[in-house]
Amino acid sequence: MPNYIRTHRPGAQLFFTVRLANRNGDLFVREIERLRHATRMTRTRYPFEINEIVVLPAVIHTIWTLPPDDSDFSTRWRMLKSQFSRGLPTPAHRDPVTIRRGEKGIWQRRFWEHHLKDTDDYEAHRQMILKAPVQAGLVRRPQDWAYTSVHRAIRRGEYDPQTPVGLSYAPSPTKAYNPTAPMRGKPRLTRHPLPNENSAVTESKSL
Prior knowledge:
CATH topology: Alpha-Beta Plaits
Radius of gyration: 18 Å
Protein name: REP-associated tyrosine transposase
Number of helices: 6
CATH superfamily: Transposase IS200-like
CATH architecture: 2-Layer Sandwich
Structural class: alpha+beta
Number of strands: 6
Largest sheet: 4 strands, antiparallel
Shape: globular
Strand content: 15-25%
Region (Disordered): 167-207
Organism: Ascidiaceihabitans donghaensis
GO biological process, one term: DNA transposition
InterPro entries: RAYT_transposase (IPR052715), Transposase_17 (IPR002686), Transposase_17_sf (IPR036515)
Strand order of the largest sheet: 2-3-1-4
CATH class: Alpha Beta
Number of domains: 1
């Protein structure tokens, strides 16, 4: 198996997907306060900005901005995972590799990261994060899911809560990225089927 070499750029904006080892689990939402605490502890020790985030039962999608003089996102995720796992019981069923490595087996070992290269790339991943609960079939509207930064985006006027839930952003060709520049033109929208209405989840607490 070839070795995966991660790219590290100081001050980068990155999209991440991290998962539970048990893809059918719901530990992230059952232990949301533990996750919040782990995130606060990590950001205190190793500062970074959370631009957007959604916490699903077994998956987290998020965009981070690292400090201008820092590129070490791996250490941040290592600490966050460790802080979250501390005090939780070891899962009953762990694979032999996890046992051999002495790992608790709560998180999937690897995570996906993507360096955002331009405005369209950023916006495409941002829209994916905001609409992930709908695409997962958990709710009919992004704002009906509690554990997402869409509530902050709505308060700031950065997301229209009346946006049709079946629309998702599709990026146009790559161009030079300036995160402070205003968006030009209109994004292309693609229609997707809606989830079953009976799958709606109502939570009162925001992430």
